Amino acid sequence: MDWTLAIGALCVGTVVGLTGMGGGALMTPMLVLFFGVSPLAAVSSDLVASAVMKPVGSAVHLRNRTVRMDLVRWLCIGSVPAAFAGVLVAKALGRSAGIDVFIQRALGVALIIAATGLFVRAYLRLAERARHRDGRRDADPPGPPVLDVRPLPTVAVGAIGGLVVGITSVGSGSLIIIALMLLYPTLRASELVGTDLVQAVPLVASAAIGHLIFGDFQLGITSALLVGSIPGAYIGAKLSTRLSGALIRRALAFVLLASALKLLGVDTALTAVLLLAVAVLAGPVWMLLRKRHGFPALPRHEEAVPAAQLDHVAA
After folding, report:
1. Contact partners, residue 44, CB within 8 Å, separation at least 6
2. Angle between helices 151-168 and 97-134 (to 10 degrees)
């Protein structure tokens, strides 16, 4: 077994445990960029490993009843066949250098979308906090929120997400969860995560089966990924109670962007310039967005919410 690869998987698993996102978005680029694994073999091995790990978190949410099974059904109608079809798309391109280049470029685009999704997710949370502060948000009704389920858009989200996952292994935890937030803004955070995790089980399983048949699955790589990522996810979950989730998500978005640029073939000098520009501009832009929603530019200048006000919001 490649213990260096297992240590890398341990680091990625820790990030996943901390943030709940970034499994395929970090694991597959790590295999390609740092371990020289071909893109097709990296996608195949990562998906098979994910198919083993996904049911663990899903079982927890099912026990806690934080899963909207009505949404899961519609998502799976689109995602399960699309994930298998994504494998066939890769297969149709042939077993040549062309398939590796295509998957590498597709993975780069998926990572840019995932990094953008992290920003969108953070902004939606900021806007939600602003609605809580000024009282514009209605109080939550007792029990689960009543959702106006939209079958066709939900199936379309599943189909697009499944196709991307089948080709690149990215999207089951990042792309689809962002789309669900936009489609169903009243969905509670715990239900959002639980629903996404449960729908990802058949989605990833379908893609994994396709890659076992048509892809380039390598048992040695998958074994090392499992040995490292399972304890890493546990460690990350423990650390998540002590570290700032916002800081971790920003670092994750930066890593995703850097990986995407390299996978898209951007030369090192231009990559450095683009990353520097993002690092310089991201802070001021986020400060402006905070001020626009009535918050101080820096979070540490925020006044603590009085306990009585918290009790009122909870009520």
Report:
1. 211, 212, 215, 216, 217, 218
2. 140
